């Protein structure tokens, strides 16, 4: 199942060639198939996030591209947290998509060429509290029924390379068959 036109929009793009928590906003990023964001410290065919790399350096990199919805920033404001694109380490800030509800294997088509297959939810780490004290509790919450709600964005692998700019449309292509919920990667 594919949406006819863009379902969402790229608000901002970010990358950093060093392992820092936040990523600087840039005018465009180039996605490389099977590798990630050109020039980003998390790009690679195998695990590049320091924690994952330490556990298993030959594991496939399921975290090549990190997406966060700009709507999260607005939801954090009333709780006392002012967050802007790139500050939570994402590569692509979106609007108009409920990223956390997309099923595993969803293809996000970004702009004219690029596509990313969604592999799972980001597992926010304690570095978030180093950035803004207490923010972790806002990104991983437990509701009244005891269900854990993760709001730290989603991860994916690049299927088709291409350049992505702010303002590019995002078209959603749902996977065929049963839609599986996202796990943590």
TrEMBL record:
Highest rank taxon of the organism: Bacteria
Pfam families, A to Z: MOSC
GO molecular function, one term: catalytic activity
Record-annotated MOSC domain positions: 24-173
InterPro entries, per database record: MoCF_Sase_C, MOSC_domain, Pyrv_Knase-like_insert_dom_sf
Family matches, as SUPFAM superfamilies: PK beta-barrel domain-like
Name the record gives this protein: MOSC domain-containing protein
Annotated organism of origin: Cryobacterium flavum
Lineage: Bacteria, Bacillati, Actinomycetota, Actinomycetes, Micrococcales
